[in-house]
Amino acid sequence: MLVDSHCHLDFPELAAELPAVLARMREAGVTHALTISTTLAGFPGVLAIARAHDNVWCTAGVHPDERRDGREADEDELVALGAHPKVVAIGETGLDYFRVEGDTAWQRERFRRHIRAARRLAKPLVVHTREASSDTLAILREEGADEVGGVMHCFTESWEVAEQALALGFHISLSGIVTFKSARDLKDVARRVPLERLLVETDSPYLAPVPHRGKRNEPAFVRHVAEEVAALKGIDPARVAEATSANFFRLFRGAAP
């Protein structure tokens, strides 16, 4: 068993051939997936995919730098969206200062609303952070995110950031980036994070792992991430698959194997 803990099955690159994508996922031994919400407008499609497949769940939320909706979701709306049984987490949320210029206060307020909604629902958070780790961790602490926990998805930060996230009760999720030769610091993080706090993901259709780097990514390829983590830790890939799958179902309590 392997679980892709973060993918975007509603994105056109995957949605256009979803039955084939899910078939390849099964053939690769990837038994379950979490498809992630990034916009309010796209949420109904995300939920529809999760409802149509027993082995797929979803989240409710708006990506940190997403502005296509033209409006902000308030806390009550996020709670209403997140109340569906197929929604097992709130996100992806967080902070991303890489692609946003000027004032970023709106990002921080959006992030706080997501955390408050997650606490009201008692559901974990899926957190994205890019060039914003200090503010991300500070807001998680200030808003009591340790009450619900969650995952730092597609982790690319330092070991020091990982330690602080782990102290808040969060998991660390590794994507195909960990397979890149240039990702030396991330490989060190992969070695050091306790196996019981790790998840693996594709973030597909992006960030395909070696040997598919540069191509469209898909959930079947999460096996390569797990194999790289196993090699870095010097353990059998089956242990990584078993542990990360167990971690997924323990964290996302609304999902069932």
Write the layout of secondary structure elements.
Elements: E1 2-7, H1 12-15, H2 18-27, E2 30-35, H3 43-52, E3 56-60, H4 75-82, E4 87-96, H5 105-121, E5 125-130, H6 133-142, E6 150-152, H7 159-167, E7 170-174, H8 184-192, E8 198-200, H9 222-233, H10 237-251
Question: Any overview of this molecule?
Answer:
The chain is an alpha/beta fold and 257 residues long. It has one domain (2-251): Metal-dependent hydrolases (TIM Barrel, Alpha-Beta Barrel), CATH 3.20.20.140. It has helices at 12-15, 18-27, 43-52, 75-82, 105-121, 133-142, 159-167, 184-192, 222-233, 237-251, and strands at 2-7, 30-35, 56-60, 87-96, 125-130, 150-152, 170-174, 198-200. It has an 8-stranded parallel sheet with strand order 1-2-3-4-5-6-7-8. Helix 6 (133-142) links the parallel strand 5 (125-130) and strand 6 (150-152). Helix 4 packs across helix 5 (105-121) and helix 5 packs across helix 6. The longest helix has 17 residues, at 105-121.
